[in-house]
């Protein structure tokens, strides 16, 4: 009886710890781990405001027994602003548990409105919070939808310099449960100015229900520059040539929606004119302030072909193809030049005099070395000005599966067998059909910087390797094949560099037409139209197997989320329980040892 009295406090402590552990498990599993939907639940959409406590690990599963997908929108998130994404986040999984494929992760650092879509009729999201004692609020809205059905005029792609778009049904009420995305992309060098003429959406301080989200870039993962609702008329400006606009609506309170327009703004400061030459076109930018001296805003400017009109924004832009719009092509002294003229539209035939200044802009691009040199001449009342511009030939090199050169090898590194036949093509990207590509020199090296040692496959148009075969001239393509090899006493990788010449196809005396000629007979060091391309690495298949695939790897990490939450509170309670068991065992053993010692050594009394 004395033993029971001594052990009673410890027994009570143990029972208390067990109760605490049981309550903690029940709280982690039942208070915020919920299945939403189900066979008996008729609702196809739901909105929830989640108030979260510190150190929580909550899981929700959404499911319905019908063949539809789920779209979930976290339109308002208030998490720990100082917390890391590892310790406090929202994770969304495709399926019935957190063991399914991860669709995405959200934390306080994200700068967008998170939207996720399931592949089937089930979706799971998990929210983990850290120990900071602050208010946390997450607004979640989800609904079921059919991926194969669409709302007319709901989103699209806009690629003109200016345009307009509206919400579906505008000015009538917008549809419910709509998610529309408009991608706006204009030419490089421009920014986008977006102006909302009207916005009439459900009013809410945090814009949780119906809202417009504007992203500074080509997708909804770009930086969010605005989330608006209610009745406002804001203006936004992109930092690049792309902008994304999203309209999201819920199941109630539909109003007129919105009407918007956009214009393009040339990003650089142009005092007068600017010329850029590329492989397929000449690009001329003319400042509108410069044209004011001629009482013109650019509408009356034209090329030699008057049907080719400029694009008007805050500048006037001509995009002149090398083989159109009246462009004149001239070949002389190992050089190709392209010329066009910009003038004002012709006056009325009945007019015989003018008091207006006349403008003539002569645009000229000359192909030189591995770049193009642009010249622009401006004549106004016998005053000539000129500007220079630089560009480069646009070439690329790739491996192909066979001598048909139809299917490109996309694998990098390209793993091959020793002595396998490889097919290589160098491509010139230009709109001029009268050019041909000639392979002058192709050499291999074990390093990407083409350092020593090197090995020539082609030199001065001649094959230097017994397995190398150079194909005949074929327009914008230079082609050859060779058998795979590796360098001795060196790395297993092989890189290729090809120097190519670009010639006029009608010139039968050009270097390209001469084919294999030794350099001693014809020096091309001063040849004007030349460029080079590099490709690689090539590696032997046995090197991959030996190294365990040293190429690019796509690695998927399984989500390490246990089925039952086990947080720091559980661990503490468990440790207290173990400690108490040890103490009880120790006291019990000592008690029985003392009892045995007492009975063993007690002296008998003398009577």
Automatic annotation (TrEMBL):
The chain crosses the membrane at residues 571-593. Residues 32-146, 154-265 form the CUB domain. Its main location: membrane. Keywords: Cytoplasmic vesicle, Disulfide bond, Glycoprotein, Membrane, Repeat, Signal, Transmembrane, Transmembrane helix. It comes from the Eukaryota. InterPro entries: CUB_dom (IPR000859), Sperma_CUB_dom_sf (IPR035914), ZP-C (IPR055355), ZP-C_dom (IPR042235), ZP-N (IPR055356), ZP_chr (IPR048290), ZP_dom (IPR001507). GO terms for biological process: trypsinogen activation. This is CUB and zona pellucida-like domain-containing protein 1. It comes from Macaca mulatta (Rhesus macaque).
């Amino acid at each position: 009886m004395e033993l029971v009295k001594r052990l009673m406090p410890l027994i009570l402590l143990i029972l208390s710890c067990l109760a605490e552990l049981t309550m903690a498990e029940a709280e982690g599993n039942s208070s915020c781990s919920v299945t939403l939907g189900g066979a008996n639940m008729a609702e196809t959409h739901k909105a929830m405001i989640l108030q979260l406590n510190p150190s929580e690990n909550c899981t929700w599963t959404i499911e319905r027994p019908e063949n539809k997908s789920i779209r979930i929108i976290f339109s308002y998130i208030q998490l720990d602003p100082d917390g890391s994404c590892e310790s406090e986040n929202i994770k969304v999984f495709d399926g019935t548990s957190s063991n399914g494929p991860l669709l995405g992760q959200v934390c306080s650092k994200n700068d967008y409105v998170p939207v996720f879509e399931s592949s089937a009729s089930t979706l799971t999201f998990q929210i983990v919070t850290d120990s900071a004692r602050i208010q946390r609020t997450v607004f979640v809205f989800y609904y079921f939808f059919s991926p194969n059905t669409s709302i007319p005029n709901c989103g699209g792609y806009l690629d003109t310099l200016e345009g307009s778009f509206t919400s579906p049904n505008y000015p009538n009420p917008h549809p419910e449960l709509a998610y529309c995305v408009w991608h706006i992309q204009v030419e490089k060098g421009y920014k986008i100015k977006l102006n909302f003429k009207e916005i009439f959406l459900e009013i809410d301080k945090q814009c949780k229900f119906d809202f417009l989200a504007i992203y500074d870039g080509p997708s909804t993962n770009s930086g969010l520059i605005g989330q608006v609702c209610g009745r406002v008329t804001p203006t936004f400006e992109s930092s690049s040539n792309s902008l994304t606009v999203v309209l999201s609506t819920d199941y109630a309170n539909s109003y007129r929606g919105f009407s918007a327009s956009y214009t393009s703004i040339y990003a650089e400061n142009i005092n007068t004119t600017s010329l850029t030459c590329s492989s397929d076109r000449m690009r001329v930018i003319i400042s509108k302030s410069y044209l004011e001296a001629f009482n013109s805003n650019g509408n009356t400017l034209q090329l030699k072909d008057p049907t080719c009109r400029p694009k008007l924004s805050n500048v006037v832009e001509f995009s002149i193809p090398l083989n159109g719009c009246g462009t004149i092509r001239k070949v002389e002294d190992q050089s190709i030049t392209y010329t066009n003229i910009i003038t004002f539209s012709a006056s009325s035939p009945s007019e015989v005099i003018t008091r207006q200044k006349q403008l003539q802009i002569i645009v000229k691009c000359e192909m030189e070395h591995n770049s193009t040199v642009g010249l622009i001449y401006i004549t106004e009342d016998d005053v000539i000005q000129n500007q220079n511009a630089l560009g480069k030939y646009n070439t690329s090199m790739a491996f192909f599966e066979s001598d048909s050169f139809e299917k490109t090898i996309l694998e990098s590194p390209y793993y091959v067998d020793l002595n396998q036949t490889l097919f290589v093509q160098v491509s010139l990207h230009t709109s001029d059909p009268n050019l041909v590509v000639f392979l002058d020199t192709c050499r291999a090296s074990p390093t990407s910087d083409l350092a020593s040692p090197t090995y020539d496959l082609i030199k001065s148009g001649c094959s230097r390797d017994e397995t190398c075969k150079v194909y005949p001239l074929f327009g914008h393509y230079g082609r050859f094949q060779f058998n795979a090899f590796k360098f001795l006493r060196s790395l297993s990788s092989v890189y290729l560099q090809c120097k190519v010449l670009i010639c006029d196809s009608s010139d039968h005396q050009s270097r390209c037409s001469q084919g294999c000629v030794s350099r001693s007979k014809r020096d091309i060091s001063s040849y004007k139209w030349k460029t080079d391309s590099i490709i690689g690495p090539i590696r032997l298949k046995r090197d991959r197997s030996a190294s365990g695939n040293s190429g690019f790897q796509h690695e998927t990490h399984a989500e390490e989320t246990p089925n039952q939450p086990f947080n720091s509170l559980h661990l503490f309670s468990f440790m207290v329980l173990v400690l108490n068991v040890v103490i009880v065992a120790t006291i019990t053993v000592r008690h029985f040892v003392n009892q045995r010692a007492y009975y063993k050594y007690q002296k008998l009394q003398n009577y």
